[in-house]
Amino acid sequence: MKTAEFATSGNETMLLNLGPQHPSTHGVLRVWLELDGEVIVNADPDIGYLHRGIEKMCENRTYHQCLPLTDRLDYLAGSANNLGYVLAVEKLLGVEVPKRAQYIRVLMAELTRIASHLFWLGTHGHDLGAMTPLFFAFREREQLMDLFEMVWGARMFPCYFRIGGLAADLPEGFMEKAWEFVKAFPEQFKDYHSLLTKNRIWISRTKNVGVMTKDEAIDWGWSGPMSRGSGVDWDVRRDTPYSSYQDFDFKIPLGENGDTYDRYLVRMEEMIQSNLICRQVLEKMPGGDINVQDPTIILPPKDKVYNTIDGLINHFLLIQKGITPPKGEVYHAIEAPKGEMGFYIISDGSAHPYRVKVRGPSFINLSPTKVLAKGQMLSDLIALIGTMDIVLADVDR
Amino acid sequence: MNTATEKLQAKFPDAVVDIYEFRGDTTVIVKSDMLVEICTFLRDDPETSFRYLSSISAVDYLPGSYLPASPRFAAVYHLYSHQFKNRIALKAFCPNDENPALPSVVQVWSTADWHEREAYDLMGIKFIGHPDLRRILTPPECEGSYPLRKDYPQEGF
Fold first, then answer.
1. B132/A239 CB distance under 8 A
2. Residues B154, A364: C-beta atoms closer than 8 Å
3. What is the full DSSP assignment across A199-230?
């Protein structure tokens, strides 16, 4: 058997199978539960129902062909995964993209963070019996989806960042639309606070549920809003800045008690801070190129391909062979909406990565479930899964 | 070279095999039998303070494909220090190619639990001392095959 063998506690306990098809497990998560009445004696998450072997698939593809696979890790925040991957490959190549591309990347990553947090808010509320937050959160998320569709032509899987720059510059009229959203968001945001923050049912369902102390959070490898809810003062964007995050001012909200309610407040504040970053990006948006000027990384413009021999050769080589970084290995981490998203890439000097390891935040954030759920009520497990904000595609990869 | 590598070399002169830097990332190759001691030292020493384990990546250096000779399997530990805001990578090779094994670091960082289960599941590295080493991502029918190994086919199996 794959499941853990639970030691019988002496009392008569019941074995309950939660998932993998269950509306409140946020995907195909299955949890084996040993229950004493309504109290959880043992919990064992069983994952892997969505394992697609993305790390293995990367080994047989060129560096560019791996990019669409990363969209499908945490599919609610595709841009964040793309950013982590392209930054890791750019670190391997030793190139830095122009300022305008960096700013556009930050803008997309922060809008994605707001979209991901809105989705969390809607579903987390819905899990715990609050219907209205879902409608409110999806109202704003829909506006974001429209913005994304303008830029990369699809709602979810972006693949807009490319190694060495971007697929295209921002479309006409995008800046105005983005300004509209950024200006309107804080006002619309007040609705969410009025729904949940002082709601008695919400407080009693989330306070003192899933408590993690600061030291435990670090020990269990929690990152992002999960660790900040426990008071770990760490944000990759601030502490090891990438993609020009040092140019922007933002605060890192911290929780005190490390419970579900504090993590709720942290994520709520993060949306406002992300909105502030977007505002600064739009204000400071520089002009200029969006791609590095290196024909071994970026496809030459079409008039060069058709009219010059070196343009044609560069185009042909890049399509047929791909990018060939030097031998070496790099690890690059970014602050994805759900926590530290890291890519460890080993290059053997060929056009295919030798090994790609994805450090997905959801996988690690889910791992302490067995210790957190022990002794809690069954209904608190649902709150716990909601607050972890897991995406099973990111857990299973 | 930074403080951590200097301290490691001073404290464990025999266990540190090699140190190299690439694009600002420091990697230390350590002997596998001293892994737990080294990890505990890096976590607890106030001047290194690597209290956070980012990830464990298992790597298959199949002879002939990248590195010329044995050992074949390695695990790479990416550590982060919240206090000093820096990273370090430890790489430990498994001494035995046929039956790869490494000491478990679950007692050093609890988060290693699922990382090691994943490495065992996909690469077949056994972590000695792990409290609950089961497959985690692949179904039970995959027992005996390890998909991330370089000799495992991508299609046609």
1. no
2. no
3. -HHHHHHHTTSS---HHHHHHTT--HHHHHHT
